[in-house]
Amino acid sequence: MIRVSLLVLAVIAISGMALFLMPVPINPFSASQMEKEILLYIRLPRVVTAFLMGMSLAGCGCILQALLRNPLADPYILGLSSGSALFATIGIMSGSAFLGGFTTPIFAFMGAILTGIIVGIMAWKRGGLWPERLLLAGIGVGFLFSSVLMLFMSISDAEALRRATLWLFGDLGMTDWSSIPYGMAFIGIGLFIAIRRGKALNTLLLGDDLSHSLGFSPRKETILLFTSVCLLTASSVSLGGMIGFIGLLMPHIMRAITGSDMRRLIPMAMLGGGGLLVTADMLGRTLLKPAEIPAGVITAILGAPYFLYLLRRRDVIG
Amino acid sequence: MVEIPKQVRNDNKDAMLNPALNLFHGLFQHLLELQKRFWALKSLVVSALLLYCFTAVAQPPNRIVSLAPSVTETLYALGLEDRIVGVTTFCDYPKEAKEKPKIGGMSNPSLEAVLSLKPDIVVMTTDGNPKEFAERLHSLKIKTYVMRARRIHEFPDEIRKLGDALGVRERAEALAKEMEGALKGLKKQVQKPKKVIFIIWAEPLIVAGGGTTINDALTLIGYKNIGDASAINYPKYSIEEIIRQDPELIFIGGGHDELKKLSAKLLYRLKSTSAVKNKKVFYVSDMLYRLSPRLIKGIEELSDASLEIEKGIVK
To answer: Are A231 and A189 in contact (CB under 8 A)?
Structure first.
C-alpha cells in the first residue's frame, strides 16, 4: 500500500512539474493573462493528453502480455500501431483536410480498427481467437503495413516525409481540448472492459484449459479483451501518434511493485504509464527549448536501456 | 585453293614492309632535319600543347546533370537549359525543368540513371545530396561540382564559381552582380525591429530557425525572427514560446490552399498574439526555401507584405 501511495504521489508531483515548472516556470497565483492562457490552453491539454495516451498504452501492454502469454507483447506486435500509422500517414500525405484538424486522428483510428479486424479474422479458427495465431497474424500484418508505409514514404516528396516522420514519433505539440473527449470515451470503454474482465484475464494467463475449468469461456474473453485493446490503441495513436516502449515496459515495472493480479496491475500500470509519458513530454519540451523533441523519442531513449536492464536482472521476465 | 608461289609471297611481304620502312626512314630523316633545327621543334611541341589546353578550356561541359531543385533553378538562370540532360523528380521550377529526364530524388538519386545520361559534369549541393554519391561519381571518373553555399550572402560568389566550372563565367558574373545589387537595395536597418515568425508547417509546428535563408532574408529587411532562438535550422517549435514572444507579424510559407486550412487551428491557438489580433498574418510563397536566384523575389515578397501593412491592407 505504501508503494501504491508513493506512486500516486510521484505521478501528481510530475504532473505538477509538467504544468507549472517546465519549460519555463509559471506561478499560478501571480500569472499574467498570457501565462494563464499558456497554462490553460497549451500545457494542461498537453499533460492530460500525454496522461491518457500513456494510460491506454500501458493498459494495452498488460492485457496483451496476458492474452498472448508473451512478456514481449505490446500494441506494436499486434500490428495495430503500424495499421493506424499507415492510415494516418495516408491521411497526412494525401493532404486531405476535409475533416480539418481531425483528419489524422480519424484516419489513425480507422487504421487501428481495420487492422484489428484483419488480424482477428486471420487468427480466427474453430469458432474463436487463438493467442498464438493472433501473435503471428499481428506480426505478419504489421510487417506488411510497415512496408507499405515505407513504400509511401520512399515515393513521397521530402516535406511530406518529414511531416509524417515527426508524427510517427508521437507529437503532442498541437494537442488541445477538442480531441480529449473522444480519447477519454474510448479509453474509458477499453479500461472498463479490461478491469471488469481482470479476473478472467488472470485465469487466461494460466492457459485456456485451466481458464475453462475455472468457469470462464476463453474464446469469449479473448474476443472481448482484444476489442478493448483495439479501442485503446486506436485512441492513443489518434491522440498523438506512435509512442513506443510504454506498453512493453510499464507492465513489467508495475508487476514488480504490485504483483501480477490483473485487477490491481492494470490500473497501476495505467497510472505509471500516464506518469511516464507526461515525464517524457516534459523533457522533450524542455531539453532543447524553444525547439521540441517528440515524446516518443524520449520514451524510446529512456525505455530501451531500462528494458535491457530488466532482461539482465531477471533473466527474461515471466 | 590456289597455291601462291613462294616468290610472290615474299615479294608481297617486302612490298608491304617497304612502304613502312620507307615511312620510318623518311620520318627519321625528317626528325634529324628537325633536330638540326631544335628550336623549331620545341616551339612546335609547345604550341601543340597550348592548342590542346586551349581547346580543353574552351570546350565547356555539354551534358550537365543537376541533383537538386536549387541547382536546376540556378542553371536555368545561367541560361544553360539546353545543356541540362537530367534533373531530380523535385525540380519543378521553371516549368520546363519538369520535362527533363529524371534521375531520382535528392537524397536518393539513382547512380544508374545518372550514368546512362553520360554527363560531362554532375552539379550537386552539400545541403541535401549524400556525400557518398559524390564519392561514387569520383570513383567512376565523372566530374562533379558541389555547391557549398548555404546562406544568402554566400550565394553570389557560389554562382561565380559555378560559372567558372561550367564555362559561363561572364553570365555568372552578371547574375552574381545583379543579385548583389538587389540584396544591397533590399537591405534595411531598423531601430527596433518587428518580431516575426515564419511558419513552414502547422502540424507538427515547424518554423524557420536561425541557420536558414529565410532567417537571412528576414534579418536583411529589418525583422527579428523569433525562431532564431533555436540552434536547429527547421525546428519543431514550442507554441508556448511563440505566444510568450508575441510576434507582430506571422508569415506562413508554402502558398498551398491546404496549408490555409491546416493553419486555421494553429492561428486559433495563437489568437492572443499581436499578429493574429491585428490580422497581420501573411501567406507567402515557398521562394525562400531554396537557395536560388528566385530568393530576391521571395525577399521582396516579405517586404511587400510589410508595405501592405503600412497601408493598412490586411489579408
So the answer is: yes
What sign does the dihedral B211-A284-A43-A34 (CA atoms) show? negative
pLDDT of residue A15: 87
CA gap A102, B167 in Å, rounded: 54
Angstroms from A198 CA to nearest CA on chain B: 38
CA distance B232 to chain A (A): 8
Average pLDDT of span A294-315? 80
How close, in Å, is residue A213 to chain B by CA atoms? Answer: 52
CB–CB of B272 and A173 under 8 A?
A: no
The reported pLDDT for the residue numbered A273 is 92
When comparing pLDDT for B311 and B277, which is higher? B277
CB B254 within 8 A of CB B298: no
Q: pLDDT tens-digit profile of B156-182?
A: 999 999 898 888 888 889 899 988 888
Q: Across the interface, do A41 and B244 touch by the CB < 8 Å criterion?
A: no
Q: Which residue in A32, A47, A93, A292 has the most chain B C-beta atoms within 10 A of its own C-beta, making it the best mutation to test that interface? A: A292
Classify each residue of B299-312 as buried b or exposed e, where b means 16 or more C-beta atoms within 10 Å of its C-beta: bbbbbebbeebeee
Distances (CA, A) of A91 to A72, A95, A103, A160, B43: 30, 6, 7, 11, 74
Interchain pair B265, A43: CB under 8 A:
no
Shortest Cα–Cα distance, B166 to chain A (Å): 28
If residue B206 lies in a helix (H) or strand (E), which one and from where to where? strand B206-207
Predicted structure pTM score: 0.74
Indicate if ipTM > 0.90.
no
Best residue in B238, B256, B266, B271 to probe A by mutation, most A CBs within 10 Å?
Answer: B238
Q: Does B312 touch chain A (CB under 8 A)?
A: no
Restricting to A residues 263-292, those with a Cβ less than 8 Å away from any Cβ of B are 285, 288-292
